[in-house]
Specification:
By secondary structure, the protein is of the alpha/beta class. It has one domain. 15% of the residues lie in helices and 68% in strands. Strands 1-2-3-4-5-6-7-8 form an eight-stranded parallel β-sheet.
Length: 180
Amino acid sequence: MLEDREINLGDQKEMDNLQSETDSLAHERVKSVQANTVTLTQCGVEEIHADSVDAQECGIRHVQAQSLQLMDGGILFADANTLDVKDAGVGFVRAETANISAPALVVMSQAAQVNDTKVGLLAAREVHSETIHTAVLLAGKVNGNVETAVDRRSMALFGVAFGVTLGLVINLYRLIDSKR
């Protein structure tokens, strides 16, 4: 069984691996954290596996958690059951329930609450939002004002236009090639 402890390393600022029931880190750079509960403040962490993660002003490469809260930081890859992000940058998110108030590149979720922010690709069974700006939206149910660069209708029209154009180019090439 993992021990219950709080991490306080004094002047030591870089660690490889931490394993415990509860980790609280401030002003540290860590490669890997494995714990039930992780509380981070102004940290850099490469990988976290935990039941609960609460991070403020942190940069995290990969996190896998049941519950994840991030404020004023950044995550490259997040895999969580429940995700809450405010004033942070997010790369790729996979979550059952996502509450996002920060720019994100890709969000895949069963239920997504997106609060006045930009998302590159949003794929969710259900999306709630007052205003969301997204390049691509794939959703079963949308509640709120959503502005997309590409939606299902636009994708279908693009596919038809691309197919017609490709067909014309191929036929033109065959016509030119047969006259030689």
